[in-house]
Amino acid sequence: MRRRASLVLLALAVFCAAMAPVLRWYAFPRLAKIPPNQYQETVLEARPATLLNYATLQAEKVDRITIVQTLKGNVEESRRIERDAGRDVVVWDSLSYVMGPDGKMVSRIPERYIFDAHTQAPVHATGEMVDGDPVRREGIEFKWPFLTEKRDYQYFDAQTRTSAPIHYKGTRTFRGMEVYYFEQTIPWTKVPMPKTMPVKGITPKILADSGLTRWYTTKRMFWIEPVTGAPVNGEEIHKEELRNAKALMGRDTLTVFEGHVKMREDYIESIGELVSSNRLTVLLLVSYVPWSLTALALVLLGLALWLEARSRRTAPQPPAALATPPV
Questions:
Q1: What does the alpha-carbon distance between residue 75 and residue 88 come to, in Å, rounded to a whole number?
Q2: Are residues 256 and 293 in the same domain?
Q3: What pTM was estimated for this model as a whole?
Q4: How confident is residue 8, by pLDDT bands cut at 50, 70 and 90?
Q5: Strand ranges in the chain using DSSP code E only, listed in sequence order
Q6: Domain co-membership, 10 together with 126
Q7: Which residue among 12, 28, 76, 319 has its CA within the 20 to 30 Å range from the CA of 3?
Q8: Beta-ladder partners of 242
Q9: Does residue 270 form part of some domain?
Q10: Which tens digits make up the pLDDT trace of 212-263?
Q11: Would 88 be classed as within a structural domain?
Q12: Is the peptide bond before 48 cis (omega within 30 degrees of 0)?
């Protein structure tokens, strides 16, 4: 009976030992994915800020500029691209909508970002764009990979339409959560005019024909929860200028926008709650359950060997052979 029990325990130990790597290396890449229908809205503010008044053509101090950033999963496009890509793909239709203190539109920049649902690596397909301009992204945007590493990544900048390193600057604690802090500085770079201008009748072509050029620089900062790869906070020290403006506006350089953009407090709190729940799910797949199964396999193996040893010690010995009497 003990030998039968030891065999059952041994079989269970082998099963648990086999399931541990299966969960980590097979199930995790297939289960930890960004859903194709995800919708997310984030509100950021610059308080105070400098903003160009197009009526007076003067840069003015304002108490607040609001940026509403939406990410909307496009399920139909995901399915279309998946047929050719042969992997799970997410298509995010993004919109960065900037409003002045009066609630009027300052700029709106649409994007289409196509990426692998698990690795977050870009997937190049028709429709990938920024403000209507076709682009070919290299590196990440918006989200870091699951199990983010302590290293630099390539990060796509939508204004310049190029990718550049975003540098890992160390591990920090943010709202009680261990995070990785990243920084990227984009030096002054000439960038395209937005397709949608805040003043009716003014188009990018009119501005280009006048000789105006748009320049931009920013310092980008992210606090990343490393298990999920989700930003729990983001900030930018951002500045835009119009140059070669003397003939049209009386000055060679005009500040279009300048401010320290920060995520609004209520959105920091809601994102933190969402990340905490998702973090537990990922940890169950990559750590908690695999290590628990490994420990259980060792315990079961030990019990199986112990029962086998006891069964051998208590097994009845065969009777000794009777001595043959002398003749």
A1: 11
A2: no
A3: 0.88
A4: confident
A5: 39-53, 58-62, 65-73, 89-99, 105-116, 129-130, 133-134, 153-157, 162-174, 177-191, 213-225, 230-243, 253-263
A6: no
A7: 319
A8: 214, 254
A9: no
A10: 899 999 999 999 999 999 999 999 999 999 998 776 666 788 899 999 999 9
A11: yes
A12: yes
At residue 311 the predicted structure's pLDDT band, cuts being 50, 70 and 90, is confident
Range of the domain at 303: 2-22+284-313
- Reduce the DSSP state of residue 213 to 3 states and report it: strand
**Distance set, CA 46 to CA 24, 263, 264 (Å):** 42, 9, 9
Among the listed residues 127, 45, 140, the one whose alpha carbon sits nearest the alpha carbon of residue 93: 127
| Average pLDDT for 21-26 | 87
Output the six-digit token pair for 203. 């188009």
d(CA 196, CA 210): 17
Q: How confident is the model at residue 297 (pLDDT cuts 50, 70, 90)?
A: confident
Are 186 and 294 part of one and the same domain?
Answer: no
Locate all alpha helices (DSSP H) within the chain, ordered by sequence: 2-21, 28-31, 75-85, 204-209, 246-249, 265-283, 289-313
d(CA 17, CA 154): 37
At 28, which amino acid appears? F
How far is Cα 36 from Cα 115, in angstroms, rounded to an integer? 10
> Can you tell me which residue has the tokens 């980008």?
220
Instruction: State the angle between helix axes of 2-21 and 289-313 in degrees (0 to 180), rounded to the nearest 10.
Output: 160
Rg, Å, the chain Cα set: 30
pLDDT the model gives residue 327: 47
Same domain? 129 vs 12: no
Q: What is the DSSP letter of 196?
A: S
Burial call 284-312: b when 16+ CB within 10 Å, e when fewer: ebbeebbeebeebbeebbebbeebbeeee
